Amino acid sequence: MIKAVIFDLDGVIVSTDEYHYKAWKFMSEKENIEFDRSINHRLRGVSRMESLHIILEKAKKVYTTEEKVKLAQIKNDYYVESLKNINESDILPGVLEVLSALKSNGIKIAIGSSSRNAKLILNRIKLTDQFEAIADGTDIKNSKPAPDVFLVAAVKLGIDPSECLVVEDAEAGIKAAKRAGMFGFAVGDAKKSQEADYKAEDIKELINVVLNNVK
Ligand code: BG6
Ligand code: MG
């Protein structure tokens, strides 16, 4: 029985991937570190500092912790600046319809995102008030594929993990959902996951999946 749906944010509700890519590219070029879209692909769902560590695999020097913090800051400053460009028109197709169908059928909805910028983004796209709970990178130590962010979301909603379904575009996110004891609904890149309970071309397929599992 599904009582709640927990949505990843980046790549599920809004497409911020290109902004993340450009911001990491800016930092990498400054440092003369090789960085391309195939490396960027590995950063999906992964926290800021863990993403930096993946990028630094190609670095020609060893960075101190202090230097790493500065590099992450350079990336984030660039990223946050670019977020000024996003608005409601960046909400991905089908999302508003799905949220409204779930709500009118009494399903609780939450955000479970690794991003520390999640609340800023939700405010920019004017969706903050739609969610009963928001769990993000500021709530957790271990990011996806650890289950923490989804477990925090379930606690905030007051729903047992076994009654939650997670919507994800990252394989790491589906892994996290399964580790949390939840259902995993994969869209986009996450469809490659072997662990997903459901795979969809269109997020609107979520409506039937949930409504067929409410009793
Ligand atoms: C995830 C993105 O949602 O958030 C990752 O998929 C990103 O690419 C992570 O690294 C952390 O984001 P932020 O905004 O805290 O740097
Ligand atoms: Mg994502």
Overall description:
- There is one protein chain.
- The protein has helices at 17-31, 37-41, 48-55, 65-83, 95-104, 118-124, 148-157, 171-179, 205-211, and strands spanning 4-7, 108-112, 133-135, 164-168, 183-186, 198-199.
- It has 215 residues and is of the alpha/beta class.
- The protein has two domains: 4-15 and 90-211, 3-Layer(aba) Sandwich (Rossmann fold); 17-85, DNA polymerase, domain 1.
- Strands 3-2-1-4-5-6 form a six-stranded parallel beta sheet, with helices on both faces.
- Helix 1 crosses helix 4 (65-83).
- The termini are close together.
- The mean pLDDT is 96.
- The protein binds 6-O-phosphono-beta-D-glucopyranose (BG6) and magnesium ion.
- Residues 9-10, 20, 43-48, 51, 76, 113-117, 137 line the site of 6-O-phosphono-beta-D-glucopyranose.
What is Rg?
17 Å
As a percent range, the share of strand residues is: 5-15%
Please state the structural category: alpha/beta
CATH superfamily of the largest domain: HAD superfamily/HAD-like
Give every kind of bound small molecule, once each. Answer: 6-O-phosphono-beta-D-glucopyranose, magnesium ion
Shape: globular
Number of strands: 6
Our count of domains comes out at: 2
Largest sheet properties: 6 strands, parallel
Low-confidence stretches: none
How much is the average pLDDT?
A: 96
Instruction: Provide the CATH architecture of the largest domain.
Output: 3-Layer(aba) Sandwich
CATH fold-level label of the largest domain: Rossmann fold
Oligomer: single chain
Give the topology string: H per helix, E per strand: EHHHHHEHEHEHEEH
